[in-house]
Amino acid sequence: MKRDNLQLYFIMGTSNVLIQKPLNVLEKALQSGITMFQFREKGPNTLTGQAYENFAQECQKLCQQYNVPFIVNDDVELAVKLGADGVHIGQEDLPVSMVREKIGSMILGVSVHSQAELQTALQYGADYVGIGPIFATSSKKDAKPPSGTKFLQQVRIQYPELPIVAIGGLNCSNAHTVFKAGADGIAVISAICESEDISNTISTLKSFSILDKKIKI
Ligand SMILES: Cc1ncc(COP(=O)(O)OP(=O)(O)O)c(N)n1
Ligand SMILES: Cc1nc(C(=O)O)sc1CCOP(=O)(O)O
Ligand SMILES: [Mg+2]
Hints:
Layout: E1 8-12, H1 22-32, E2 36-39, H2 49-65, E3 70-73, H3 76-82, E4 86-89, H4 96-103, E5 107-111, H5 115-123, E6 128-131, H6 150-158, E7 164-167, H7 175-180, E8 185-188, H8 190-193, H9 198-207, H10 210-216
Parallel strand pairs: 1-2, 1-8, 2-3, 3-4, 4-5, 5-6, 6-7, 7-8
Helix pairs in contact: 1-2, 1-9
The chain binds ligand LCLJCK34, ligand 3NM and magnesium ion.
The ligand Cc1nc(C(=O)O)sc1CCOP(=O)(O)O is lined by residues 11, 111, 130, 132-133, 137, 139-140, 143, 167-170, 188-191.
């Protein structure tokens, strides 16, 4: 996995999309330039059983068409079954060591909030870390209190080459703060799911990254 893949990491499940069809939102986001996708079917009235698996597969197929990595949140068995590109886990999920054993060389993303969690993630070969919530979020009901950018800045100084994605309450008005703090990218749900103009939102969010700045020069 390259650090560039984290530039604009879109996370979505059916409960995040109220008006449009979830697959239409994903396709529009892919057309508009998201660089990574996480299937996160969590929250109220979520799909289960075969419908859950079918929806995951449809998301995966779309990601493959646009050559964007397809990452599964939490569900390691599903990721292995579908041959996903990777898995994202947090501190309440299976231990990092166990997940690495189950997924082999697939991409492994781990949420970290402290030095201890970071060291464990690195010890077992996390490919990237997720740091958040930076700002308040309404998309994760059990989210920790907003952390701001201090920990993110510390981790960047400590590990200049580590792929880091920031998450939690990020939008077109505040995303610049996390790129400035050293994040390679941002992970968002509501900024895209609730956008009235997905294409414009995505180009604005990406414009804060150094990758887009390099292209413009
Ligand atoms: C990119 C990214 N970062 C953090 C998270 C949060 O993971 P986790 O703490 O396991 O919470 P859930 O998403 O499982 O509710 C994430 N999913 N993605
Ligand atoms: C899935 C998730 N994880 C978080 C964390 O802090 O670990 S915050 C979050 C929700 C992000 O959604 P939005 O972009 O709508 O704030
Ligand atoms: Mg999790």
